[in-house]
UniProtKB/TrEMBL annotation:
Residues of the GGDEF domain: 327-461
Enzyme nomenclature, EC number: 2.7.7.65
Response regulatory domain mapped to chain residues: 4-120
List of residues that carry 4-aspartylphosphate: 53
Protein name per Swiss-Prot or TrEMBL: diguanylate cyclase
Pfam families cross-referenced by the UniProt entry: GGDEF, Response_reg
Naturally occurring in which organism (per UniProt): Thioclava litoralis
């Protein structure tokens, strides 16, 4: 089945007819004859979408929509509100109550199914994002703070600047805290190439200089980094059913009336835009939380360097690149000398500050292509891709000097002299597996310790075969 749909309508004939149409499209349908029954079924059956008629025997359709959208158990379920076409006040009240879509009766079956597909895609995206966030919370990564609802940036693209100006003037009355900007087609494509969207929402006329040109423009915008996450609405004439269906199936967030100047129409559009923009802010925050969670999962919290979880796959990629290209690379294991004595003598807070300063000094020597990670208590890993042996040895010697040439400052007490021992491995064809690299680097580092510390020991590649 394509999904479970709950229908709430007091008239049995309406319920049966609508069920037959939806069942023909392979939806699983649940029926409710009144508002309370619909509320109970929504909690028990957890449908993917709810269709409610404006008239219920025990409560109004607006009240039912309000209850559904304020109950945490059902608030995420999309709601389609069916109303009489002349009942503008009821339609606006339903939108204020949280209804996702309002459709006049008698509804167009093809357009209704397109709306269903669009809302179910949106619900699926939202559910996937919530699942990812839940997984990260379970792993111990806290959510970031809720973002401040800054004024939205809304771009208007109409066939003429006169029509776009009329849209802007009408919408500004109901969206006073937002920025409305008139755009040409070329301007929209230009800002869409930026890494981050310059606009939170874009309203495109379905027909620009040519028929359905707005749909083609929307497809372009959805494929570009700077606009793929923006709310995109298509403004179409009421009789252009095929255009509306195509727009929804191509990924439009909504289809709006082409004439936005009537007061009730403009308020309708403003309510819908606010809902879409609120969802976009939630998704933006979710993406930000996920990005931060992924970053934290790969970063050592004390030093800010990469951790072992990140370093090992990266080292594998560096070795694989060397295998494919025949280029040299080098791997180093670095261990602080007598670090336990520092912790035992001065305390772990001083030890932590030493580790942090060591990480900082190491990072100043390396460039962006090199891998630097803290993989143990006082142990660091460095990988230098595309690095000839003589350059690797020079780099290792420089790293030793960077640590030992200047004492480590203490706020309360004498400065500390800190040194490191380095095991250097040159990754030739016989030392390209990660296990062999680590074994060789660890052996070389232990030789550095044994030979007096504060030095570099190069692993003899021939003996590692």
């Amino acid at each position: 089945m394509a999904g479970k749909i709950l229908i709430a309508d007091q008239i049995a004939t309406n319920r049966i007819m609508l069920k037959a149409k939806l069942a023909g499209a392979r939806y699983d349908v649940v029926l409710a004859s009144n508002g309370q029954m619909a509320l109970n079924l929504a909690i028990r059956e957890r449908p993917e979408l709810i269709l409610i008629d404006q008239a219920q025997p025990d409560m109004s359709g607006v009240e039912l929509a309000h209850h559904l959208k304020t109950d945490p158990l059902t608030s995420e379920i999309p709601v389609i509100f069916l109303h009489q076409p002349e009942d503008i006040a009821n339609r606006l009240a339903a939108l204020r109550a949280g209804a996702d879509v309002c459709l006049p009766k008698p509804y167009d079956e093809v357009l209704l199914l397109a709306r269903l597909r669009s809302l179910l895609r949106t619900r699926s995206t939202d559910a996937e994002m919530r699942l990812r966030e839940s997984t990260f919370r379970d792993l111990g990564f806290a959510e970031g703070p809720a973002t401040f609802a800054a004024p939205a940036r809304i771009g208007l693209i109409a066939p003429t600047r006169v029509q776009a100006a009329a849209w802007k003037q009408a919408l500004a009355r109901h969206l006073p805290a937002n920025y409305l900007t008139i755009l040409e087609r070329s301007e929209a494509l230009s800002v869409a190439t930026e890494a981050q969207s310059a606009f939170d929402a874009l309203i495109l006329a379905a027909d620009l200089s040519r028929r359905d040109e707005g749909l083609r423009l929307m497809a372009e915008l959805r494929a570009r980094a700077g606009s793929k996450a923006a709310v995109i609405c298509i403004a179409a004439e009421a009789e252009a059913r095929e255009t509306a269906v195509m727009a929804l199936d191509l990924g439009a967030d909504d289809v709006l009336p082409a004439d936005m100047t009537a007061r009730e129409t403009t308020e309708d559009i403003a309510l819908r835009l606010r809902r879409h923009l609120a969802r976009k802010r939630r998704l933006d925050q979710s993406r930000k939380n996920l990005t931060e969670g992924l970053r934290l999962a790969t970063i050592d919290p004390l030093t800010g360097l990469y951790n072992r979880r990140y370093a090992m796959p990266q080292l594998e990629r560096i070795a694989d690149h060397a295998r494919r290209t025949g280029k040299d690379f080098a791997v180093m294991l670095l261990d602080l000398d007598r670090f336990k004595d520092i912790n035992d003598t001065y305390g772990h807070a001083v030890g932590d500050s030493v580790l942090t300063e060591v990480a900082h000094r190491l990072s100043t020597v390396l460039d962006g292509n090199d891998l630097l990670a803290r993989i143990g208590g006082e142990e660091f890993l460095i990988a230098l891709p595309d690095c000839p042996p003589e350059e690797a040895r020079l780099a290792a010697d420089l790293l030793c000097r960077v640590i030992n040439e200047r004492p480590f400052h203490r706020a309360n007490g004498p400065d500390l002299n800190v040194t490191i021992s380095i095991g250097l491995v040159l990754g030739d064809e016989r030392l390209r597996s990660i296990d062999h690299l680590f074994e060789a680097a660890d052996h070389a580092m232990l030789l550095s310790k044994h030979n007096g510390r504060n030095q570099v020991q190069v692993f003899p590649c021939p003996s590692a075969a």
